């Protein structure tokens, strides 16, 4: 998930990691103004939250996942969307990092309503929202089969599956993750390709020494 801006006048990490006082709009006001907004904004319980930029590690993970999903799903009705596509949750609207929707979407649609899998990349500023408020909304979507939470600061992939009563399964380096909703298996090493954190740097060094 993208970080939430606290204060539009702030710069640096603080501006990318904290929430500011929310803006209140009606659903129609949000949808119409979002079309011309300079920044992406999520809409939860009538409050609008501006979204900020993300780290390179965040981008490495989301683009890898989106590319792997997209390549795997070529020739199927399922489409992969990354960050710029809204997800409608009743009267709420959010921007998941990656989602796959297998329903029929027109070229003029601005949001998804029927994802089969959602992926969020966690950070210190977004972990609470992604693991509480959003989790509860996501798992109540009739179409959703899997919710994936990927840490960017260390190596950990958590997958909650509808078929397993939304109980979490955890995956680490050396493991392979099967995304059952789309029939794709990726190793944790593949998911963290190019990511620069202590776990991955140590893993690469050990792998280099063993060759």
Summarize it.
With 211 residues, the protein is of the alpha+beta class. Helix content is 27%, strand content 27%.
Strand order of the largest sheet: 4-7-9-10-11-12
CA radius of gyration: 17 Å
Q: Given the C-alpha coordinates, what overall shape results?
A: globular
Number of domain modules: 1
Distinct helical segment count: 7
In percent, how much strand structure appears in the residues? 25-35%
Find the structural class using helix and strand composition: alpha+beta
- Termini separation (Å)? 36 Å
How would you name the CATH homologous superfamily? Answer: tt1808, chain A
Regions with little confidence, pLDDT below 50 for 5+ residues:
3-19
Residue share in helix: 25-40%
The name CATH uses for the topology is tt1808, chain A
Q: Quick check: average pLDDT?
A: 88
The main β sheet shows up as: 6 strands, mixed
Please state the second-level CATH architecture.
Alpha-Beta Complex
CATH class: Alpha Beta
Find the count of extended strands (DSSP E, 2+ residues): 14
Reading the helices and strands in chain order gives: HEHEEHEEEEEEHHEEEEEHH
Task: Describe the protein's architecture and organization.
It is a single chain. By secondary structure, this protein is of the alpha+beta class. It has one domain (about 55-210): Alpha-Beta Complex (tt1808, chain A). The protein has 7 helices and 14 strands. The chain has helices at about 15, 25-35, 55-70, 125-130, 135-140, 190, 200-210; strands at about 25, 40-45, 45-50, 80, 85-90, 90-95, 100, 110, 115-120, 145-150, 155-160, 170, 175-180, 185. The chain has a 6-stranded mixed beta sheet. Strand 11 (about 155-160) and strand 12 (about 170) form a beta hairpin. The longest helix has 17 residues, at about 55-70. The chain is globular.
